[in-house]
Every structure is written in structure tokens, then in C-alpha cells.
Amino acid sequence: MQHSFEINSASGSYNAMVGADIFGDSVGRILEKKPADKVFLLIDENVESHHGDYIINTLKSSHCDVEVKIVPQGEGSKSVPFWEEASTFLLENGVRRNTPLFVAGGGVTGDLGGFVAATTLRGIPLVHIPTTLLAMVDSSIGGKTGINHHTGKNLIGAFYRPDSVVADIRFLDTLPRNEWINGLSEILKYGAISDNAIFDDAEIFLQADISSGNADTLINLIAKCIRIKADIVQKDEFEGNIRAFLNFGHTFAHALEKECGFNAMSHGEAVFLGMLAAARLSNQTGSKLHENRLDKFRPLYSYRVTAEELNAESLTHHMRADKKRIENHIRFVLLDDWQHPVLKTVKDEELIYQAWRTVFSELQNRQKATI
Ligand SMILES: NC(=O)c1ccc[n+]([C@@H]2O[C@H](COP(=O)([O-])OP(=O)(O)OC[C@H]3O[C@@H](n4cnc5c(N)ncnc54)[C@H](O)[C@@H]3O)[C@@H](O)[C@H]2O)c1
Questions:
Q1: Helices within the chain (DSSP H only)
Q2: Mind listing the domains of the chain with CATH numbers?
Q3: CA of 106 to the centre of ligand 1 (A)
């Protein structure tokens, strides 16, 4: 089973593919269409240790030299110094305007590599090989690239269209379980804002071993998410309006990550809690979400932060400092109903504090559940 999408952007269209064992054929086709005597590969260090030989040999089988740069795992690589190091590697090793850069890894390597491709010689061809679930359903689609700055996350970057995205689920065989759960949060986000059937498909995550025996369901699920993201970014590539719907739960999540530190709270955990809070705030501001469709996934999440360590005022303060804030009051992606996201400015802080209380009680319940 395989899905292929043509995604339009202001600078042309690109192809995204998802399937099992599609990497070899896809790369063959890409390099047949645009032959190159040399390609560059930026590859996450963990991906290199599990899949490096396979990826490099596959690229070499298209009769080109492969120049490899390993990207240390972790958010720290999305930095100005590492961007410079990677760009220097390309420039010192003979990159030309038509030399493709293959980027294999999760969102960290993808965002960094995308920005290297966007900036080197004012833009070289880019092929994303996403190897985490999050990168397959989210970060490799839509053209956002970038690195962090000491004043905040993703503050330096560019919109840059890849030439192709090849999502081969075989790479997920080595993905640690916590990274599956990270990706799940973004998948559930698509369920909430666009397609409730995703909540049923995502029940495969409730099984002990997510990937084995579920390949087709997983491919279909990833394809659904890619289609939803592609539809949204095609209508609003530069986030003037509806692209913001992809941030459902994220205003709360970013505040949690900031307050707890990225080591104490993973992005996926923060997004899940953020979606619970956003659902509550939706109801407090006039919606009637009777059933909480996120409920059945609660047991999959565990937290290293306790409710006692957090306070609503400080968290709300972080929200106000968010770079996406454009007015004095905080603007949220809420749900008029499931599958009907809406942007709302909430002026009454007490309502925001109540939404935080949903997060605190979830932390307490999950703590009890794991005692
Ligand atoms: N550009 C966008 O639109 C967009 C959207 C969402 C998130 N992001 C960014 O994505 C980043 C997070 O991405 P992520 O969650 O993929 O994290 P990540 O890239 O840090 O990868 C998570 C971990 O998984 C490891 N890994 C990756 N693939 C593996 C595999 N196949 N087998 C074993 N281990 C593997 C990595 O080494 C790392 O330790 C953040 O920096 C975020 O800002 C960007």
C-alpha cells in the first residue's frame, strides 16, 4: 500500500509519498528525474546508527557520490552554530545550485536541513526523508524550516518548499515508544480539527506493539494526516489565517514546555494536555463538546511533572509572551464543535485559569493511576 500526493505551494508543487519499503524505488525515481553526480545527506545520529548503511547504499546505487554529515540528536542541533557547521560542510565539499540535499531524521534534522537547503547558495533542491511519526505527519509537510535562537524556539527560518517527501514507515521500526506518543498527539490534533474518524484509526496506539501487524492502518492514518495538513497549507501557506488551526492545543503546550523545561515535558505530552485545556476552554466560551474524544488516549500519557509544580498565572504569562501573539489578549484555536476549529480571542483570564485547572487535574489523575 502506498499513497502519493501532489502539494501546491507558491513556488511550485512537490510530491509526498507514504508507504512501506518505498525508499529505494522513490529515491531511484527522484534521481532518475534529476540526475546528480553528487548528493549531500544530513542524517540524525540515531537514524544513522540504525539505517545509515541502507540509506547511503541506496543513494549510491543511483551512481552518485554521497557526502554525509551526521546531525547530533536533540533540539540543540537546531542552532545557529550547527546551521553554520552544516552549511560550511556543503560549501567546502563542492555544493552547486542543483546539488540535492537529502535530509533524514525527525523534525529537528528536517527543520535544520530545510533551512540549510533554503539558505545555501540561496536555495538548493531538498528531499525530506522523515523518520519519526511526527515528521511524517507534520514537520516534513508545509515548507516551514528553521532553527532556534537563545531568545526562543524557531525564531530564525524560512518557508522553503522541498522537491519531494518520502515517508517510509519501515524507518519507524526503530522509533522509541515515547516518540510514537509524541507523533500521536499531532495525529489526534488532526482528528480534533478536521476528521473524527482519526480517533478510531488511532486506536492502534492502544495496542502494546503499534507497528507490527498494523502497517496498512498506519500508512492510511499517516496519509490522512498529510492530506489534512496539505489541504490547509495549500489554502494558507504563510499562516495568514487557517494554518493557525494546526496549532490546536499548542498555545497551552508551548507555555507548559517553557514552564517545565523541555526535558521534564515532551512536546507530545504538552500538546495532549494543551488539547484537553483547549477543549475545556471551547466549552467555557460557548461550544458544546459533549463527549471528549481524546479521553480514550489518556492512559497512554504519563508525566514527570506534578500539578503542584505548576501555577496558572505563570503559565498564562508565558502564553502572553508567545511570538504568535498579535494583540494584547491571547488568541486561541478552539473548537466550535469537533472538526470545526475557530480562532478566538479570550479576554477573561478566569476562563483561561479554569482551562489550566483541567491540566492540573489530569496530572493528578495520571499520577494516581501510576502509583
Ligand atoms: N516545520 C514544521 O512545520 C514543524 C512542525 C512540527 C514540529 N516541528 C519541529 O520538529 C521538532 C521535533 O521533531 P521530532 O519530534 O521528530 O523530534 P526529533 O527530530 O528530535 O526526533 C526525536 C528522537 O527520535 C530519534 N529518531 C528519529 N528517527 C528515528 C528512528 N527512525 N529510529 C530511532 N530513533 C529515531 C532522534 O534521534 C531523536 O532522538 C521540533 O524542533 C519542532 O519545532 C516542525
A1: 23-33, 45-60, 80-92, 107-119, 133-134, 177-193, 197-201, 215-235, 250-260, 267-284, 312-320, 349-370
A2: 2-233 (3.40.50.1970), 248-370 (1.20.1090.10)
A3: 3
